[in-house]
Every structure is written in structure tokens, then in C-alpha cells.
Amino acid sequence: MRQLFVILFVILSLNCQAEEMLNVSVKVINEEGSPLPNVLFSINGNNITSDKNGVFTVNIKRHSTYTIRLSHDDYYTSIQTFSDFELTNHKLAHIDDIILVKKKKSRTMLAFGGDVMMGRRFYHPYFGDQTLINEDNKLEDSKAIVQYIKPYMSLADYAAVNLETQIANEEPTERAPKSVTFYSKPEIVSALAWAGIDYVSLGNNHTYDYMEAGLQSTLSFLEGSKLGYSGAGVDAESALKAHLETINGIDFAMLGYVGWEGSASPTQTANDHHGGAAYGSMKNMQASITKQLAQKKIPIVQYHGSQEYANNPTGVTEQRLKSSLDAGAALAIAHHPHVAQGLELYNNKLIAYSMGNFIFDQNFSATQHSFILYVWLDDGEFHRAEIVPIYVKGYKPTPATGMHRYTVMKRLTELSKQRNTVITTSGGHGIIRSQHVLDSKVAENNAELAIHVANNERAIPIYHTPWDRKITEIKMPNTEVAYRLGTNLINGSDFESFATFDSPERGWLFEQNSTTLNDFGASGQHSLRVKLAANEPSVFGMQSFRRVYHAGSVMTLKAKFNVQAPVKINFYWQGRKKRQKLFDALNNSAKQLIGSVELDAASDWQNIELDFNSPRVGYRGYRVIAEIQLQNAGEGHINIDDFSLIEWQSAYSKESKPNYYNALSAQAAYLGINETVSAPIIVKF
């Protein structure tokens, strides 16, 4: 049975009454599973120490989020963050023991994040959203963007990210012949260093966006900073040069590469005629690694390649990374797809195939779930890894809680399982252990969960199920009921993280002056209250188009409404065609009716589920919106919760054992049934 676990240093308070208290207990263990006494915890400035059983108990005031900090002189400090919803909802409140890693001679803790930029919509946001970086306050605003991941990155002996942008005071005049170019202002360098980051890889396809002027500016600002870098230079030789760093007495060589030269002229990669990124050909990578090994350095490879928004790496990426490890690199970290991909323990060396976004302004939801990766190396040999789930909330990286934690960790767990790599739990984080260490947790006994279904629901969220376990059996109350498995294409559907971390959500379409956050909900602690006017409909739904989806899929649009006066709601999907500009699609694309409902005033929440098919061909993305029309004169309001867009990843089945024909069905966040049931559904793991 999992231990109930909780909080240590409170970072944010929201909509909580001071007299409400939370009584929690946590157990801390070492890597062998033995309890750790004398571990120091901090709660609002008060210190608490674990007892001889590694347990501490505390009674604290309720807050919206809680960040725990566990410290011991002989162990690496650990930080984890949980939401109040996770720790008070009976379905979610079972949290694993937290495992601390022992310090030892020649052991190093490295931290990695994904793609980073602070330009474009950070300064000029869409949709009237809040500006994150203001010209008259650039440095402090830039630091505010990384404030919630600073504690996490600062724990490591050495931390690295992929800097996917050039750096300049103003946009350079000469631009590479490509559709998308990035530049960020110099304050990004100071903000990253302040956040605990030590090194940036420049081996990517945006390092030469503004060609020589942009490259020279970038290199100049980095040279004047505390950040180490590699992966780009004024010619091929300098671009392939490693950044050398001694960490805890061990000499490392940091190497960065981009996986393709680019079709434009000049190319994005450096050669004898111009600068650019280091070209990550098999020949270049192996030669660089061999050179560093000859100099008694331990090579760490960062590589930018594969296909954007894909679930798995390309064959080219996989082969180059594995060949690099075969050649002697200790670790391979990859990026470019803007979504997280799985991890693989290959010959006891770790590959992270895509770190996803870390600090980025992409405004479609598939790119907003990623992770920090901790890796411990002993004399350059893999010892252990830990995964910290991240949600890029309003372009800011924040610790993922609730449904965001589930989404990140379920994806990484299932994609890694495809590569025979097992992720187990440490509190709310994931861990990967060395192949030389037997992990007894893998052999745990099977567990089961009874899911109680409301009378009229056929699409049931299963975010409260364990993300580290795959569903092995589904038992229906009777043999006539069939089920299917689906994923949710809308982030934050339950609104539990809507107002956390001082970073407003940018994914929802609503009138800001007429919408407030409730301290109650249909299935949790929060919902949205939308003020309605009789003379025109109020619009609610997705702000941007969902770009990562499967054409021709069976969909369900699900939402719960608490109605104070009679309303009519029309639900639509609206598409953006493949070559269509964003705002042209938002303003001019036809709205396709999914269905209409009329709701009478009622004290209870009313569940709405409408089935339709996603666009088949010709669309780059689509979104769903609801137009809510008050039926009476005057004004009123409506409460909205659990607004979800479910893409079904399997057909209905009556077989008790799920068929995971689609890899996404193993990442299911929803269980669908073909008819309502009154008795619980039993799910086994």
C-alpha cells in the first residue's frame, strides 16, 4: 500500500481558509528501501526531523500547492510539489515513499531541461493575454518566468538546457530563409544562470536563424556570462568543440549537435565558409567522442533531431544516439520534437529521446507537458535517474500536479516500457534504476480499483489511477457493457491548477472580465463561473487549435454544468486548414455544429457528452467551443467543470483484457462505456 505523503515548504496560498488544517504523514527511505531518520523538513520556516522509521507527521494550514524539501548531510536534497487537491481528494491521496540518493565520492548529479527561448509571445502575447516580459523590467520579468523551476535546477551539481534561440538586444536585420526564427533578449542569459542552469547546448536548428550577426551576438553574450556552451561556432571546427567541465573531481565534455544540415543556403550548420550549429552526423559525433575519451574526458551528448510532435524518435536519431553510447559517451539527451518522448536504458546507459519544451511560447496544448531529468553518474557510469514532471503553464515551467502529473508520467512510463525501461515511483516523481540493481518494486502484487460511475456518465476520467501501472483487466458489472480507452486533448480540464503558480492559463477562450474561479466543483475543489447576458451568447472553449491529434477519430466532447437559469448551449468544432494563417482561421473558419442542448436551472451538476468525429483530412488543427445563450431576460451565470475533449484510442470491447493496438490507449485518461451502469467497474493493474 502506498504511503500518504506530503508537504514541506509552502510556496503559494489561494482561496483557502486559514482555519482549515491538513494532517499528513510521509516516509523517507534510502535506495535500499530502509527508513531514513534525521531527515530535515521545512514547513513555513519550522524544522521537523523524521523519526527512526523515516516518518514525520505534521498538521499544517491548507494551501493550494505545497512544495516539500527533504535535506540530509549525507544525501542529495529532494524537492517535490503537490496540489491540495492531490493530498485531500481520497482518490488521489496515496503517494509513494520518497527515496533519497546517497552522496559519495565521484558521484555527480546532473539535471536536464528541454527547449528554451524567451522571445516572440513572451513580449507580444496573443489574445490579449498578459505580457510576461516588459521592456522596462526585462531582467526581473525573465527571472519570474523561471522562479518555480529554480529550486529544482539548483539542486544538481550541474544543470543543462537546449537554448533554442539566438540572443540579441534587437532583432537582427538579416534573417535566414526559413518560416520561423527566434531571438531572445540578453536577460535570458542572466535568468537561466539565476535559475541554477550551468550550460546550454546550441546544437539546434535555431542557432543560425539570423546568420552571422545573430550567431556572433549570441556567442558574445554567452562568453560574458556564467553559462558554459557548445554545439555552435564560427566554423565547423569550433562548432564541434566540446565544453569541458570538472564536476566533483570528474572531467566531463559537453557536446551538442543538430541532426540535419538544412536545405537552405547558407545551411544552418557550420562549415569552412560560415558559422552555425555543429552537424551531428555519425562521423562527427563519433570523432568528437573518441577525441574526448583520448583526453580522459567523459562525453555527454545532446542531440537535436527526430520529427516534431511525434511519439517516438526517428531511426536516424535512435541509431546516432546508440552509436554515440557505443563509442563511449556516458549519456545521451535529445530534443526537437517539442513533446516528451520515452527513455531507454541501453547497455546501462541512459537515452532521453526528447525532453520536450521547458521555457517556450507554443500555445497548443500537446507541447505543454514535459519534465526535468536528474541523472546520477558514478565515475561516469549510470547509477540512477529521476523524472520531475513539468507543466509549461502560460509559457512558464511549473511543477506538474494532478492531471498534469498523470499526463506527463503516464506518457513517459508507457513510451519507455516499449523500450524495456521501467519507471517506478518516488513520491510524485519517476525513477529509473541501473540495470545492475534489482528493483523489487517491479514485482509488486497486482492491485485493483473500484470505479463508481454517476448515473448518466459514459465517459469516466481515470486520472486517479496509478500512472506507473498499465491496466491489465477491466471487469464490467454485466456482460452486455463494452468499454473503450481514450486520452484528453485539453489541458487543465478540471480547473484544479487554473490559478496556481502566478501564471494564468492561456489555453481557454472566455471573457476574462466575466469569468471567475469557484472554490467548489463537480468532481474537485474548483470550477469556473461565467457571467451570462440575455442579448448575446457567451463563448467558452479552447483558445487555440489542437495541433497534435489523429484525423478521423471517434471523439466525445464532455462537460459538466451547474445552471442558475435556463440556457441553450451550441457546441462546435472549428478547424485550421494546413496552409491557413492562425488568425484567419480563428476569425473566418466555419464552425461545424456538434450538437445542441437545453438545460433547465438545477442545483445539481448536469453532465453533457456529445460524440462526433475529428476532421479527416486537410486540417492542421482544430478546437471545440461552446456558445451559451441565456433563455430568460436579464443576466445570469453558469458554472463549468470537467470540460474535456476525449479522443478514443480503442474501439469498444467486451474482452476483460484491454487490447493496446494503439500505443496511446496505454496512456488512457478516460474510460468509455457504451451504456450507463449502476454498479462499480473493477479495474486491475
TrEMBL record:
Signal peptide start-end: 1-18
Residue ranges constituting the Capsule synthesis protein CapA domain according to the UniProt record: 109-362
InterPro entries: Capsule_synth_CapA (IPR019079), CarboxyPept-like_regulatory (IPR008969), CW_Biosynth-Accessory (IPR052169), Metallo-depent_PP-like (IPR029052)
SUPFAM superfamilies, sorted: Carboxypeptidase regulatory domain-like, Metallo-dependent phosphatases
The entry's keywords: Signal
Family from the record: Belongs to the CapA family.
Protein name: Capsule synthesis protein CapA domain-containing protein
Organism of this sequence: Pseudoalteromonas aliena
